[in-house]
Write a structure and sequence with these properties.
single chain; alpha+beta; 2 domains; 6-stranded antiparallel beta sheet; 62% helix
Length: 310
Amino acid sequence: MADEEASGGEDGRVERLISWAASVVAPLSVLTAVLFYFGYVSSRARFEYFGVDVDTIGLSTQDYVMRSPQALLTPLLVLVLIGVAVAIADDLFRRRVRAAAVASTDADESVAGRGRDRSAELERFLGRLELAGRCLIAAGTLLLFGYALLQDWTPYPLVTPLLMAIGAGLALWSARIRGLIRSAAKPRVGVVLALSLVLVTGIFWMTATIAQWSGLGSARQQALRLNELPTVIVDTRERLNSVSPTVKETALPASEAQTFHYRYRGLHLLIQGKDRLFLVPGEWSPSDFTLMLPMDGSVRLQFQFENSPP
């Protein structure tokens, strides 16, 4: 009997440990997936600017996760500030609702009347906020269905989810506060779930758009300073068919032991993939392109020191 209790206790501890591990691993998995997605979106926009499909680079999941903070920093700061503002507004209105409710039950009829008036005024104000939120959701929905006509409008992928997220947030918050004033105004569970889904989807869409713009902006900033990237000297067995005019080609002296015959200077390392290098010239030009070289021994690479004496 004692052995069974001991066994049961041991099994219980194992089950609790598994349950705890699952509660930790699941959020971490979701967080990793989210970071991977935004890192991928940002990296795709960045390298697409240089004519490279990010899938050909061969970056790992860890690489994308490590690249996501740059794209997420601004959205996270904005969300934190909005969260602080919402928390302050929520606390303020809840205090006013409670104060008006207490005043409306006062024995003095004049005080009670003023309390009921304040409650009614707050409810009307919150009702207008809820209506404004629903109008914003409707406007975002119209933009969503007008994608075929508005897809070339640059701010479209940010304005559409912004309207829907702000509208859902306003409608959800104002309805919940109204429910404190009058229980009949409390939103139903289905409405709360629907508005919450619209809010989360809008935030996700906005963040993805900002991540994409962040990657594109980072690429444009990098294009202004390509000469600051690591300088690479490339030796090849055969002449490269086409290179940028800013890249200097030199024929190496012929000898029996020499397997490489051409040297190229003026290239810079954009990124190193799993088994290949992506090189760009030192100056951006719309007629230039990114050079992809395999790391299989067919080329010889030298990385030049920076021209900055110690």
